[in-house]
Structure formats: C-alpha cells, structure tokens
Amino acid sequence: MHESVMQRMWESAHLSGGNASYVEELYELYLHDPNAVPEEWRSYFQKLPADGNFSPDVSHSAIRDHFVLLAKNQRRAQPVSAGTVSSEHEKKQVEVLRLIQAYRMRGHQAASLDPLGLWQRQAPADLSLNHYGLTEADLDTTFRTGELYLGKEEATLREIRDALQETYCRTVGAEFMHIVDSEERRWFLQRLESVRGSPQYSTEAKTHLLERLTAAEGLEKYLGTKYPGTKRFGLEGGESLIPLIDEIIQRSGSYGAQEIVIGMAHRGRLNVLVNTLGKNPRDLFDEFEGKKIVELGSGDVKYHQGFSSNVMTEGGEVHLALAFNPSHLEIVSPVVEGSVRARQDRRSDKSGDKVVPISIHGDAAFAGQGVVMETLQMSQTRAYKTGGTLHIIINNQVGFTTNRQEDARSTEYATDVAKMVQAPIFHVNGDDPEAVLFVTQLAVDYRMHFKRDVVIDLVCYRRRGHNEADEPSGTQPLMYQQIAKQRTTRDLYADSLVQAGVMSAEQVQAQFENYRSALDEGRHVVESLVKEPNKGLFVDWRPYLGHAWTARHDTRFDLKTLQELSNKLLQLPEGLVVQRQVGKILEDRQKMSAGGLPINWGYAETMAYATLLHEGHPVRITGQDVGRGTFSHRHAVLHNQKDGVPYVPLQHLSEEQPSFEIYDSLLSEEAVLAFEYGYATTTPNALVIWEAQFGDFANGAQVVVDQFITSGEIKWGRLCGLTMLLPHGYEGQGPEHSSARLERYLQLCAEQNIQVCVPTTPAQIYHLLRRQVIRPLRKPLVVLTPKSLLRHKLAISTLEDLAEGSFQTVIPEIDAIDPQKVTRLVMCSGKVYYDLLDKRRTEGREDTAIVRIEQLYPFPEDDLTDVMSAYSNLTDIVWCQEEPMNQGAWYCSQHHMRRVISALKPEIGLKYAGRDASAAPAVGYASMHAEQQEKLLNDAFNG
Ligand code: AMP
C-alpha cells in the first residue's frame, strides 16, 4: 500500500495499533472487490485521496500486477496488421478489447434510464458481438480482460459481456469517456467496474433510503390533500431527489465541508425546504394559508423562498443555504457560485474543500438556457472557480408542455452542454434509489478529488401537470397514460425491500405513519437538524440592517497616509519592466502623489481601493478587461515586458492587508453579474465591483438587474452592496457604445432600492466608492462612469479633495458668478457638464448657472433645494442631457426636479434640452452627432 495512504489511515484514531494488518487486508480485499468489504470501509477507502497515477491508492501487489498487465497491453496495443496477428484467437482477443471499450463509451445508450419506459432508443450496433465478428459460440472462450476491473486477468467472453452489461447498461448511464485526463477516466473505470455499477448497501442504508423517499412522497401527499389545487410545483415522480441531496450533504460533511449552498428552481423546492433544510412544516402551512411571515418587504411566493439551517454530519456541523430564486430559470446558478466563492474566500478555502455548491436544474432549462453554458464556462477560471459544482438535473422529460426530444433540444441528452467542460455525467433511473445513491457517492467523491463539475441526470417524471392547477394529458397524452399506471418510487422500493426481507411490511407502514404524524403535529422532519446552530459558520449581517441612505458616514482620509500608500503602490519590484505608456501613467501618478500634477480619474480610483484596503475592507473587481480598464485608465495589473508575469501593486500594500482581487472576466455579462451579485450578498464587508466593458453590455444581464439587484431586498430581505461601473457618454462613437441605458436603471428605482450615480470628478468617484463600503448601508450602486473624462483637462481634483470632503449628491456652480445675475439654471449629469461649462466660459455668459446632479437616485431633493435657493432671480430652469428624450434621466427623474422647483419657484416650468426622442441610443455619423450636440447645448442656454 502507498505509504501516504497507510499513514493517513493510521493517523485516524480508529485505525491505530493492532488493527493495522487487518485494515491492510481489508484494503487489499477492497481493491479486488469493493463489494466484499463492509459498506463503512468501502466508503472510507473510496474517499482516500487519489495518489499518483493510481486512484484509489493501490496495494504493492496490485501495482506490480498493474505494470505487468500494462506491459502486456502495450505489447497488444501495437497496430494490428495481418502479419502480426498470429492466430484467430489473437484476432478475437483484439475485438474483445474493442467491445470493452465500446461499452465504456456507449453503454449508457443501452441503459434502462426511463422509469416510464417510453424512451425509444436503438441499442448501439457496436455493443453487439457480431459487430466484432464474435458469435455466441465464443461466449465460453477465455480472453484476457485487459484493464477491465474484473478482479482477474482472464475471463470468458460471457463473463466479460455480462460484467459490462451490468456495469454500463442497467439503471445507470455513465458518460465519462469524453474526459481528456486519463487519471480521471481510470478513476471512473475502477469505481464503476469494480462493483459492476451497483454496490451492495447495508440494511441501515436501505432503510434510510426508504425513509427519505417516504418523507418526499409524504409531504406532497399531505399538501395535496390539505391544499388541493394550490400551486406547489410538487416533486411527485422525482422523489429520489430527496435521498440524493441528503447523501450529498452527509458525504460532503464527512469530507470536512462546512457550508453547502443550494440553488434550485421551483420544482420540488417545498420538499427540499422541509425535508432537507428542516423548515418547520407549520411555517409552510402558514404560507399556504396566505399569511405574511416576513416582517419587511413585499415578499415572494413560497416556491421561491430561500432558507438557512445547520445540520449534523459525520464530519461535524454543516451550514446549509438555499438561495432565493426568481422564476427566471437557471439564473440562480451563477448567483450560487458567487455566494460559494465568497464563503470560500472568507475561509481562505482555495481548493473548495470547505464550501460546496449544489445546482439543481430542470432538464428543459439546462438544455435551453444560455446562462448554463456561461456558468459552466466559468467553472475553472481564476475569478469564478469554486472547486467543482454538483449539478443535479430533475429530468422529468418534459418542459412545461414542450416535448423532450423533438422540440426542447437538438442534443441526445439534456445534459450534453456539460461536456464542454468535460464534466462526467451520470444518467440514473429515478426509480432505482440505490443506483441514485451510488451515482451520488461517485459524484461527491469525484468533486472532492478532482475539484471539477459533475452532473447527475435524475431521469424521472412529473406525476402532475407543470403545477397542480394544470392538466398535462392534453399535450402529453401517452406519457400521462403511462404515468397514471406508474406506482410511486417509494412504493416500488418498499416492495422490493419487503420482498428481499430487509424490512417488514409493518416497518414500512410505521415509517409512513411516523412522518405523517410529524406533519400533523407541525414538527421538524429532518433528524439531523441542529436546533442551536453554530452561528460562527455564517456572517452576521446585523450591523448592516436598518440604515437609511442618508446614514452618516465619513470618507475623509489622512493626507499623509494617503501619500504613503500611493508611494507604496509606485514602488515596483526589482526587474519589473513596464510597457512605455504604462510607465508614463505611473510617472504621472508619482507626480500626483507629490502634489505636482492634478489628480486624474485613474489615480483617484486607485486610491479609493488603497485606502479601503488600508482600513480593512477586501476589494474584488471583475469584468471585461478590468485589469487595464477598457479605456486604459486603471492599470491595476502591470505586465512585466520581459516575461509577461503580472504584478498587482494593490496586493502589496502590507502583509496584513485584506485581499485585493482583480480578474478580467470571461466575455459574459449575465452569469458574471449574477456571480458578483451572489458574492456581494454574502460579503458585506467588501467592495465588490462588476465593470462592463461598455455600459450597454449590461443589457445582456438585464434579468440579473431586474430580478436580483433591484428587487432582491424587497422580495427576500437580502441586502447587497454590489457596485456596477458602466462606461457611458456621447462621444460620437455610434449607437451601441454611447449609452449605458441610464433609463433602464432609473425606471426600476423605487423604495430606495438602489443608488444611481454619475460622478464627474476624480474626487467624486473616490468618495463614492469609499462611501459604498464605509457607510453601513448595503445598497446596490450603479455608477455611470466616463470615457473622455478619464483624460479631460477639467475633470481633475486635488490631493486635498481626496483627504477632505465627501461625495456630493449635487455639485453647485463652481465659477464665481454672482447669483443675483443668474436668471437661468441648467441642471445636468455626467460628461455634458464640461461641454456646457466650456460653452458658457467661451461665451462669457454670467446669467446662467450650471448645477450637476451626481446622484440621480435616491434623488437628492433637499440638496438640490439648497443649491437652487441661492438664485432668487430665476426665470428659466432647464434639464440638459445628451441622451434622446425617451432615454437618459428626463422621464424618470423630472418629477423629482419639478417637486423641488414647485416648492421654490412654482411659477417656473422645467425645460428640456437634449436630443429628440430616438429609437437608437445615438447616431452613427460623426457629423450628425456634432450637429445634435451643438443644438442641445444651444437649447440649454437659449431654448
Ligand atoms: P446564509 O449563510 O446565506 O445562510 O445566511 C445566514 C443568515 O445571514 C441568513 O439567515 C440571514 O439572516 C443573514 N443573511 C445572509 N445574507 C444576507 C443578506 N444579503 N442580507 C441580509 N441578511 C443576510
């Protein structure tokens, strides 16, 4: 046995002393036949980490045997030409090895996966003997087994074929031969073939399986009787999900996992809430009766609710969190990943051992929704990996009313998209609970060993319609004729246990009645639920609750320390050669730090991060090209010109500093923004930023904005301090990259749900970013960031502006204009301010004051009132914007401005200066753009 494994075993308390040789014998036995050792030992051996090329670890003799075999195989693997094949038997031997390989690759196509028996699949030709020139007459001939894990080197063809048939063509369809890594493939071969795809389970395990199925079925029956016709998106037909999740939790716990985050859609959610997370059934009944159970907010339907609890496992207490979920399918998956990554970062769990994501999908949604692909694509990237996700498909073979194969997809399985990341996929017949248990164990072990995604395709059915008020036989007549005849999974399994003498009929009945009376009494039905949960397992959000957006805060920062931090950022390690333009930017920053140059945007933003880190707040920034910044202003990641090695100065401020993470994202918006939402809703202490390459790209993530960012707090009471940076500005670059679609965000503003800001100076972005973390309020922040202002000669600040001051929601007129002379007030946001300023200065006008509204929501009515009241001789008040009239802030914000005006100057109306309403955000021709811009500026002063 490998020394490392032995050592680990001896180190376990229960394996010490004189047991050693007994354990070694057991292990030898296990390696030859996993079913020959008791289940606890099998489970223990299976979980031993993979060492070297052998997984699981193998005995000395097995290693020796393995090499002998390998040598033989290598000899055999030489190209077979007529001349080298000495005999008919040798030719057949080669064909037998090909047959073995075919079963491994395509056995799943002949497996019995559909509990309804409706799948019409042609058995693959290459699983038949005659495909290889073999016949029934060869069945009793002995052949070498190659690397088939059969426990012997030679076997008859009959034995070989039966073993393959049992392993690959029963109720588990295993797809793993597409995995490129041969160690992983071998791991699966060993695990599947050594038990012929079906291990023996103890009476205790079987009884527990039935208990979980009884719970799953019992709850739905109970709800169905008590609240007939009420929507609950029942799990009937897919009850095996409950033992499946139970096993994931217990087994992950025994590996040392401390938190598990689950994402799922509506189907089966109530069942998971009560039977897995231990939600009190009485609370659920209250929800069925329409009672309001959340104090704050407008709430959500019961099958979208999240939940948190702690359960006990063999490895200790595990915190479970079921994410809140909107009805937009699959979008919760990246949210869960973000939440998991945040928890892993909090625990410094780089490998993902301590926090595990479970993502539960529907078959139609997994095949149909693009965000699935995006989320899979994230799974091994630096920014987004979480050590592998356990995906479960509740495959009820129908999408609402859409048929499985003809309409719902073009692929053989709903799971085929997962192959893009080489995830192993296990299709399993949901009516075989032991097979479900087996693939679950395999999936958890794989995830824990290899830290990659794995998929369980739980092939089941949907006993009722899409919901309980829906009649399915109109659209799926044949399927529902079959379902009407189908006995439940629990019934079938209970019968098989009674027949096998594992349980008596009375015991089965007692299980059923126990569960029912627990529900009647409104008792918790999860035995492992921890009544006094260890709160140390999750974050305390109390400091962030109950603050108004006007909460006091102080974003000033000591000037000397600021300069020290700045100088530290500019001290580069020996040998780091930066690119020429980057060098110039750093040189300028040096001057800015010394007070020799006014401060620009890039400097101020960098110092916001540096000062927050200094004050103990972690910072995480992701998005397309964030390391450099789309417009080359940030350069937070320096690339050594000699060897390409990146250096991130903000990670080297001090030994004790919190983490500064910055990653260029994959070219996704939807999954990436959802991920960062999940991250931010789990990490209140950090500044979490997503930046769009161009502001309009956030369009691709609109569902995240609508269903999570702007409404998550009011629906679910989940706070979120996520910051979105959206480059915006009309610079004549055409329809797509001018506008970040400000109107979208403003239209969603209500109940002080988010903050929408348009800062126009470096000091403003600095204080805004600092305010976002220093103020205990946690609200999403949408920032329209500039493009040309990054280098505009007037968009500058001083070191003192950073050290003192705060974010100004309204910036009053900055020129020394006598308020008494002012008859016109122009209000605006963003870059157009500098165009207005330039025009006024050029024309030398003193009758017009220009006021910047830097926070459009929550609208700063009081601050605007203060600014406006300085002008007593106003005759015109204008809102000026670059966006067309149907876009920008005009429609969504004018009522706020009018309210301020009507209180101060009821006789004055509000005028509009901006582009005419337009279907596209901007024109494509530079000359048209310039004409429009000139007109809107003129209107602002004269219209
Ligand atoms: P979780 O770790 O997600 O299960 O959260 C544990 C507990 O922390 C929850 O039950 C909530 O009380 C609280 N909590 C978690 N996330 C948030 C959030 N984003 N806003 C407010 N409270 C939260």
Task: Report on this structure.
The protein is an alpha/beta fold and 943 residues long. The chain folds into three domains: 327 residues, Rossmann fold (3-Layer(aba) Sandwich), CATH 3.40.50; 246 residues, Rossmann fold; 132 residues, Rossmann fold. It contains 31 helices and 26 strands. The strands form six sheets. The protein has an eight-stranded mixed sheet. The longest helix has 24 residues. It is elongated.
Q: Name the CATH superfamily assignment of the largest domain.
A: Thiamin diphosphate (ThDP)-binding fold, Pyr/PP domains
Q: Count of DSSP E strands?
A: 26
**Alpha-carbon distance between the two ends:** 88 Å
Characterize the biggest β-sheet: 8 strands, mixed
Strand pairing plus helix content: what structural class? alpha/beta
Named CATH architecture of the largest domain:
3-Layer(aba) Sandwich
- β-sheet strand percentage: 5-15%
What compounds are bound to the protein? Answer: adenosine monophosphate
| The CATH C-level class name of the largest domain | Alpha Beta
Approximate shape: elongated
Average predicted confidence as pLDDT: 91
What is the radius of gyration computed over CA atoms, rounded to a whole number of angstroms? 33 Å
Distinct helical segment count: 31
Q: Which strand order spans the largest sheet, edge to edge or round the barrel?
A: 3-11-12-8-7-4-6-5
Question: In the CATH scheme, what's the topology name of the largest domain?
Answer: Rossmann fold
Percent range for helical residues? 25-40%
Task: Return the domain count.
Answer: 3
